[in-house]
Each structure stands twice: as structure tokens, then as C-alpha cells.
Amino acid sequence: MLGLHISEGGENEGLQLLDMLAAHPNTALIIGEKLARRFITDRPSAAIVTSLATVFTESNGDIRTILRTLFSSEEFKASAGQKFKRPLDFFISAMRVTGAQVNLENRRSEQIQQHLRFMGQIPFTWTPPNGFPDVLDHWSTTSGLLARWNFSLSLTFGHIRGVSVNLPALTQDAGSAEDVVDVLSIRFMGDILPDDARDILVDFTLQNNLDKVIPSVAGLILGSPHFQLR
Amino acid sequence: MDTKLSRRDFIKFAGSLAVGPRSGREPAGARRPALPSWMPRMAFAPEGMEAPGDILVAVFQRGGMDGLNAVIPHGDENYFELRNQLAIPEPKTGEDESIIDLDGFFGLHPSLRPLKDLWDQKSLAIVHAVGSPDPTHSHFDAMDYMERGTPGEKAIPTGWIGRHLQTAPWQNESPFRAVGMGGVMQAAFRGPVPVTTLKSIADFHLGGDMAQLAGFRLSLAALYSNGSMLDPLSDATFNAVDILDKIDVNQYTPAQNAIYPETEFGMALKQVAQIAKAEIGLEVACVDIGGWDTHNSQGSVDGQLPNLLGEFASGLAALYHDLGDLAKKVTIVTMSEFGRRAQENASGGTDHGHGNCMFVLGGGINGGKVYGRWPGLTSEQLYGPGDLDITTDFRDVLGEIVEKRLQNPVIDEIFPGYNQWQQLGIAKG
User: What's the CATH code of the domain at B105?
Assistant: First the structure.
């Protein structure tokens, strides 16, 4: 195996093989690249990949040390807005920021499965051994984007059986269209939206009855390009 | 009205409002056009610049089909030696569960019976001992090479269909020029030409509160017009929604009593037929069918593989019949990443192999013939660990279709680095 002779030794043969693979220099590079792609950008620079690989080798694969290096890098600091959330990331983040309460019979939901299927990612269904792709090119599909929009609306309108969101509770102190947009943006995105996007949402809110428009505004924010990116 | 909206968005939105009410019920059995009569024919290219050739439907059988039990070389006695449990009985007239003879040497698995009519009317051609010359037994690499169209080479990032669309000497701005069924874009499409992926036409619309929908949609389009990297994707999505809104999905009745299997594959093919008939600019559709990785209990005349072959054949036959006259301008080609070991394994299955067979179907195909040189099945004739050898490169098949049926002459750019062309004569033109 890779030029190494593994002598007979029962279970130890497997352990020896795993040790050898873990210590292989390409393993450090692949792990470095995967982490950089996950947390920084689809096409990370060779510099950051090499530096993560070096830390991997020197720390004997200590994940804390490697991630500390990654999170304190300049590349990571500059990475906001560069990653397209994968469908599952998008789904989980939307459920989390809306404070969705899940109450399912038998802990199963055909509807949630259906939404994830349309978005394109049901956990544990990627057959090849390389894991779900982690790049925009794979996930940026028309049917996938439409599915995200429809999921956003289903969620904010309370149309998913067993899943409820309490939008009135999130917006109870908001008395104006601007307030509604800002309160929801801060809740969903951590900040008010850039002026151009904020203006579009405020105009939309003003064109409708403030009592009835909140699910649509929330759906727009979840469906916006800002919420698709990380 | 928000003054920040671009003119383009306004036009797009106004266009979407122009959709009139659905026409009322029509008498049962009336031939319904795919598009309501009030809708003008859509033009996606200047006059004289439209795609001149066929629509291509490329079917990928993922997992590695056992070509030796699909199109069986019953004239090669070694087949019956290598396949013990899995052998299909030799052709006998009138017997349902025996090989359906094609030419005295090859025969179809009985589950492929729906394809026999198409063979008899010379619309179906088969290529055997065909495949990708790279020796890999990894599904992942083999599929990747086949979809790139560059066996053994991963330096070129695009797929063969993507390069065909990119280099075609005609114009087509339709969002349905290239359609990937199943919701994920097939790797063969990779390239600069946008691809619409579809799970289901019926679900391809925007939900939400109907009273607020128009404004919602306008605002969403505006949010995606501020320079985000996702803006082009959003444009394509809205365009696709608008066009599909005009196809009457629920009223669709396949022509010539074609019956599609009630499976994801069957539904995908049915929607390809709908899109093709709607004349909304379709040039290439990719459809996947999985489940071919039959390492255990694959079944001889009944079971796993026979069921899958039945679904595959009835789906293709339904598509061909449903297309009716349009089938003259459609070419369907099937491929799988590799074949399977000639000798069955101890678990009643077959392991990853090399050579396989491809089906080519269409009005422009010289059918009723099995193409390719048969390499034989003796141990000296088998390839590597005991696989069917490859005597025809899959690029010969695809290249001839691209050149003669799709009428794109720049094969060198579609299959770069390939210089051992052999013309099989499988396509007219």
C-alpha cells in the first residue's frame, strides 16, 4: 500500500494503514484545502492551504490549533459574503433566526424533506465518498434558488406542518415600515441591510397593510441574496 | 413605484402580468397544443440563427450498467460460461423469459422488450463494447471523465455538452436551451452557457400570499439587481418561471397512449417531452437514472437489474412515442460510467468493469444494427481483471451525433485531445 509493506497483525493492520494515511503529506493538504474552502472561499489561495497543512502536520492533526490558525488569518477576516450557503446551511440558519419551533409527530416531516429535496440537499444522500460539494458552481441552480424562495415563504407564512414561527413577537415594538424592516434584518442578518436593499423592502412594506405584510417581508429577507451568502 | 428598479426588471415584471387566464375545459380527447393559442411563438434567436439540428436527450445510467446482461452476446458461448446464475435463457420464439434476439449474435434482455419495436422500425441503434478508455474502476472518476469528455484528464474544467453549447455556431437565448432534470446540474453541462435545472415543472412557480405576490416578486427581483454574484442566477430563475407558467402542466396527456413509468426517471422524461413540444428553445436535456451498481443479487430474468432495465426501456419507449413527429428531430443517447465484470461474483452480482453498451434512438439514426467490433470474452480477450474490452470510444458515438444530428462541426473543441476518430455511420446526415 503506497509503497509500504503491512505485515500480518489482525486489527493492527487497519490501524497501521489509518496512521499512514493520516500522516501522508497529501492528507494535510486536502484537509487544509477543505477547511479553507468551507470557511473562507470556494477557491482558497495556495498560501492559506499550505499554512493550514503545515499546522496540521506540526500539531499532529490537532483540529483546535488548525482552526485557530484559520480563524485568525487575514483571508478569513476578508471572507464575509464570499460563500454561498449550501441548502442545509440555508435551511438551518433560516430556522434558527426565525426562532422556528418544531413540533413533529414521530419526529418526521414529509414537508421538510420535500423542501430539502427541492433545494437539493438531504443529509447523508451524497453517494460518492468525497462529501457534498462546497462550491457555488454546484449549488447555484435555478430550481435550487426557487426552492429557497418558496421555503422562505412557507416558513414565514407558517405553511410547514409542525413548524411554527412567531413573527408578531419579533416585530411587536416595530411601529413603522422602516422599523419592521430593520428589526427583522437585525434579527436575521445581525445588522440593518445596505441602503439599496433596505429601500426596496421599505417600499414593499409601505405598499401593503403593515399588519399583514410581515410574513412577506420576512420571506423577502430570507430569500434575498444577502441571506444566501455567508 | 420604486424608482430604483431597473427598466429590465420592470419589463420582466410587466411581461409576467400579461399571462391571461387559463382556457376552460376542452372536450375529452381533443389534441391540446402545449401552449395556449393566445401565446405568440417565442423567438430566442434572430431569424436564420436558430439551432438547425436535433434536440439531444442524454441519459446517464449512474452506477455502471451491466451491459452484458442488457444487450446479451448470446452468440458468444463464453457468455454462458461466465454467467452461471445470471445467464438469460437463449432466444426461443414465444418465450417471455428468454433473450430477445436482434441479429443472431446479440439479443435484448427480456425486460428491454419495449425497445424491440423501435429496433424493428430502425429507430434504435446499439453500440457494444463501447466506453471510456480510462481504466479507472471508481464511479466518481469514471463519471467525471465521461461527463468532461476527456478521459484521464481533469485539467479542462468544462463538460462536453457545455463545450458543445459554447461553440455552436448559432444563437439561442432561451433559459430552456439546456435543461438538467433532477434539480442538480449534470457535470457534462459545465461551461459558460446557463442551464436550467428542474425537479418538476408543476412546482416551478413562486408561492406566498397571492394578493402580495406581484409586489413580492418585483421586490425580490430588485434585491437581485444590485450587483450580487447571484444576480444572473435570479434572472434565469425568473425567466424560467415566466415561461413554465405558460405550459399547461396538469392537462398534459402524452401522445400515442405513451405510458411513462411512475418513477423519477419516467416523470423526468415526460417533462422533457413537454418542454420539447412547447417549443421554448430546448437543445439539450440531461436525465439521470441511478441504481445500476449491482454488486449483489442483481437477478437474471427477475429482480433488481431486470426491474431497472424495464423502467429504463419503458421510459425511453414512452418518450419516443410521445414525441410523435417531433422524434424525427430528437436524438436520445444513453451512457453509463463503465460496464461490469464479465464473470458474475459469488453474491449473485457483478463487480465494476470496463466496456459497456450504449443505446442511440431517434428519427435521424441508422437503427436496427449493433455497432462496434466484438472483442470476445475469453480470458485473453478480456481487459484488466476480467472486463469486457472497449473497441469503440464513447466519443466516437457522441461526436458523430454532435456533428451530424446537432450540426455543430467543431468536434475538436468539444472532445479536445482526441484524434483517433472513427465514424460509425450511426447517424444520418
Answer: 3.40.720
